[in-house]
Amino acid sequence: MCVMPRRVWLACFLMVLLAACATGRTVGYRSDIQPLLKQKCLRCHTPPDGEGYLQTGLDMRTYESLMQGTFYSEVIIPGDSRRSILNKLVEGRAGKDMIMPHNSDNKLTDAEIEMLRLWVEQGAEYN
Amino acid sequence: MYTARVLPKRVYLTTILHLALAGLLLMCSYSLYAGDGNDVEVTELGGVYQINASVVINAEAEYVHQVLVDFVHIYRLNPSIIESEVLPVDEPGTARVRTRVLGCAGYFCQELERVEKVRELPSGDLIADVVPEKSDFRSGRTVWHIDALGERTRIVYDSKLEPDFFIPPVIGKFMAKKSIHTEITTSFQNLEKIANVLAERDWITDFTLSSRLSATHTPCDLATR
Questions:
Q1: Model pTM?
Q2: Mean pLDDT score of chain B, rounded to an integer?
Q3: Full residue range of the structural domain in which residue A110 is found
């Protein structure tokens, strides 16, 4: 049997530890995402007469309604922010006219956009 | 020291046979059918990929056309369209659309940029020509032919694309064809869904309007309008 020297074990352990630290913090739906959506999105995405809700059917009041998506499709693909419509729209990847929120007073900051991206990448869980 | 374990020749042969069979099944599974008798075929010759599809979808032609020319919402057609933008036009009667598609062949993913000039012929066919200098493609043309079949629509889709990037021969090309087939099928499924949502919303609007009219006018009023 091949025995690895203690120094190699220690190096491996440190690398795993560093990799774990590099992934950053976990973004929580209840602690981070829900308050953000409430502040920036709910004005339009609330039934029965929010403009965004009327146009697309997207109700952002609860986790379940958010994951249900629009009349057309889901807006979140857990683990895949590049393909998720929510991320495409807030990041401006669907054209300047489509950036969400439409209201310029309510724009998301870069940190908020990144937080949404991380949450989706981490599986978009109800955590 | 490690010593290699030697497997009997029979085990090797069986494993190779299993792998070959699995490969064959995989190759057969992607070609030809998207389901319900619809044909989607992807072929490659000399580095040019040709996609031919003839698909009947359960949505009215009017709404199918509406979805196809709604370039602002083109990202709804397929999650793999990770970026999209309607660019300023340089010719009247045309539209210029930029898309960035996440193309994956197995575990390898690549983002592909494409700018297309789209125009509609008097026949109603849509033609999209790739603008090579702004795309990851040397050339490309896609034609959408839409035929109304009552409440259903037949779409004949013909596309030729010549990638301007390296695709490894054999396995790479096979994976690329498989990936294109999957994405095209997904796009047709979403097209059907979106067209039906639009039809339903139109119906609800008409119904609401007619309900309002009948609530504010007597039948005599309506008869004289």
A1: 0.79
A2: 82
A3: 28-121
The predicted-structure confidence for B13-25, as pLDDT tens digits, reads as follows 555 545 454 444 4
Distance CA B20, CA B135 (A): 37
User: Which of B1, B80, B83 has the highest number of chain A CBs within 10 A, making it the mutation to test binding with A?
Assistant: B83
Q: How far is CA B138 from CA A72, B101, B135, in A?
A: 33, 16, 8
Contact A98 B190 (CB under 8 A): no
Q: Chain-centre distance of CA A9, in angstroms?
A: 36
Q: Which residues of B touch A97 (CB under 8 A)?
A: 72
Percent of chain A with pLDDT over 90: 74
A112, part of any domain: yes
Q: What is the C-alpha radius of gyration for chain B, rounded to an integer number of angstroms?
A: 24
Mean pLDDT of A52-60: 96
Domain count of the fold of chain A: 1
Please check whether residue A78 lies inside any domain of the structure: yes
Q: Is residue A15 part of a domain?
A: no
The SS3 of residue B165 is coil
Instruction: Please determine, for the modelled complex, whether the ipTM score is greater than 0.90.
Output: no
Q: Do A88 and B76 touch (CB under 8 A)?
A: no
Is the Cβ of A84 closer than 8 Å to some Cβ of chain B?
A: yes
CB contact A1 to B (< 8 Å): no
Question: Looking at the partner chain, which of B80, B85, B193 has a beta carbon nearest the beta carbon of A95?
Answer: B85
Residues in A closer than 8 angstroms to B75, CB to CB, are 85, 88, 93-94
CA distance B154 to chain A (A): 21
Domains plus CATH for chain B? 28-202 (3.30.530.20)
